[in-house]
Amino acid sequence: MKRADKAARIQQILDATIGDPPVPLAHKDPYTLLLAVLLSAQCTDERVNKVTPELFALADTPQAMMQQPVATVRAIIRPCGLSPQKSRAIVALSRILVDEHSGRVPADLAALERLPGVGHKTASVVVMHAFGMPAFPVDTHIHRCAARWGLSNGKNVVQTERDLKQLFPEAAWGRLHLQIIWFGRRHCPARGHVPGHCPICSWARRGTRAS
Q1: CA 58 to CA 53: how far, in whole Å?
Q2: Are 31 and 105 in contact (CB under 8 A)?
Q3: How far are the Cα atoms of 55, 84, 98, 119 from residue 61, in angstroms, in the given order?
Q4: pLDDT of the residue at 209
Q5: Which of 21, 60, 145, 157 has its CB 3.0 to 4.6 Å from that of 138, i.e. a possible disulfide?
Q6: pTM beyond 0.70, yes or no
Q7: φ/ψ (deg, to 5) at 15
Q8: Looking at 121, 155, 163, 165, which residue is catalytic?
Q9: Domain edge (last residue) among 115, 131, 147
Q10: Of these residues, 139, 155, 163, 165, which one is catalytic?
Q11: Do 101 and 164 fall within a single domain?
Q12: Are residues 92 and 152 in the same domain?
């Protein structure tokens, strides 16, 4: 089966099994989304959602966050892991937003990627969910599933993102990003996965004959 045909069938299955899932990270605006996504690096969304209420009660704007001691922020976000780096990044990027962007999160991928602690995936999530711009952020779930399904060679997330953008229509990128994450957690986990029981791997997995 050609990759394009496989992608179309996968998109139909995702629409039928997942639908329109919500953004898994609790937030109320672009700034709180930015911090939540930053915290989610090497951490589960569930844990981030347990930590952010206390963090946002302390400060939920760049103006308020830049005034906080890094040690105070670090103590709150410690359960998310990498707290020394993340706490410094949160306070530093908040100051930059105030000093260089009038206290607003820029709707620009390159500007976001220049912020401390913000990589390409984090920036892509923010421009997509906060500003409705086309992007296809690739996390571990998407990278794993795309490789299993033969949609990408799986060498790195950069290649996976490029392959998926070529296979799927731009208008569907945002929905597919969330759908594959939810599908990966429910049906296509990293461990204990039984390909024959998966609605997609059962026919699309590398080496599996499509029917």
Answers
A1: 9
A2: yes
A3: 11, 20, 10, 21
A4: 42
A5: 157
A6: yes
A7: -60, -40
A8: 121
A9: 131
A10: 139
A11: no
A12: no
Q: What is the pLDDT at residue 163?
A: 96
pLDDT of amino acid 155: 83
pLDDT bin (cut points 50, 70, 90) of residue 206 is: low
Q: Tell me, yes or no, whether 147 and 127 share the same domain.
A: no
Considering all CA atoms of the chain, what is the largest pairwise distance in Å, rounded to the nearest integer? 59
Domain count, the chain: 2
55: closest CA among 69, 31, 76? 76
- Domain of 140 in residue numbering reads as 3-21+136-204
Query: Among 102, 131, 160, which residue terminates a domain?
Result: 131
Question: Is 45 tagged catalytic?
Answer: no
b (16+ CB within 10 A) / e for 27-53: beebbbbbbbbbbbbebebeebbebbe
Active-site residue, 121 included:
yes
Give per-residue pLDDT as tens, 103-127.
999 999 999 999 999 999 999 999 9
The per-residue pLDDT for range 1-46, each reduced to its tens digit, is 789 999 999 999 999 999 999 999 999 999 999 999 999 999 999 9
